[in-house]
Amino acid sequence: MSNYSGTTGNGTAAHGEDAGFGQRVDQLGSDAQQFIDNARSAVADLGQTLDLKGRVERNPYGTLAIAVGVGYVLGGGLFTPLTGRILKLGVRLAALPFVKDELLGMAESAFQGYQTGRGTPPSGSV
Known about the structure:
Protein name: YtxH domain-containing protein
Region (Disordered): 1-23
Keywords: Membrane, Transmembrane, Transmembrane helix
Largest sheet: none
Transmembrane segments: 61-82
Organism: Corallococcus macrosporus
């Protein structure tokens, strides 16, 4: 039985080829470790820049609300019927103070006009 010139009797690669493969595996391992170290360093730098721990300690409920909002958007909740209803309600609530101020202004001007005699008294009054 003849063997391939690149293999030993038990079917494994010859020593010269095995050393090249082992070096490549070692290089990949060291590259992966360097990538992981760089990623950890970047996350630590970002954490220090944003001061997440300090923000959570100073304002835990606000931080929680922001996290829920970011999770909702990233989870795909932005284009759902629920979001549409929330936006409609938000627009109505935002417009409410403007409508209230306008109605109060109209009522005050009508009341002042009635007091100065420019307006007509309501029906049924003397």
